[in-house]
Amino acid sequence: MLAGFGLTMSTAWAADGATLYQQYCAVCHGENGEGVPGKYPALNGPVGRLATVPEGREFLIATILFGLEGELMQRGIVYNEPMPGYGAALSDEDVATLLNWLKVQWNNARFGAQAPEFTPEEVAKVRALNLTPQGVYELLMKVEAIMHQNRPGPGGGGMGRGAGHGHQGQGQGQGQHNCP
After folding, report:
1. End-to-end alpha carbon distance in the chain
2. Cα separation of 8 and 35, whole Å?
3. Neighbour-count burial of 92, counting CB atoms closer than 10 A to its CB (0-12 exposed, 13-18 middle, 19+ buried)
4. What does pTM read for this prediction?
5. 51, 75, 121, 141: least surrounded by Cβ within 10 Å?
6. Strand-pair partners of 77
7. Position with higher pLDDT, 113 vs 169
């Protein structure tokens, strides 16, 4: 039906996703998902990569719904600013729309375009977990372990800066974790 108006479903999602991003994410993560070094991590890279694995998808959904608390490292920079959850303000459809928009924006498109669309049903399953922000951090640690296992090359490093991941030789053995 949208096609009759010159719009496709992805165009409709893009408009709604962009609006949701501006309303809930841009103030901290920046207009282009670049983040604020040391304060708010970048979203312009890791979302697309995380959307390709089930555990990453669960983490992304849970982060939006429940927030996140815990120290993490992304691109060699430590972050420890809590993120609020927006589960009370966003419907399952809103969360799916936002994530579908994010997974193909900026540097996320490299992997995110290959990832299946997020659905309201998928969001509802994660919402039912009723996690705390610390529980979401525990999901992040599981995702980190999985993503590190899948890294090519010596020592498991291979995703590097281009994907928004990686130790870059920093943080290992210091009790710090990398944000995907």
Report:
1. 37
2. 30
3. buried
4. 0.77
5. 121
6. 74
7. 113
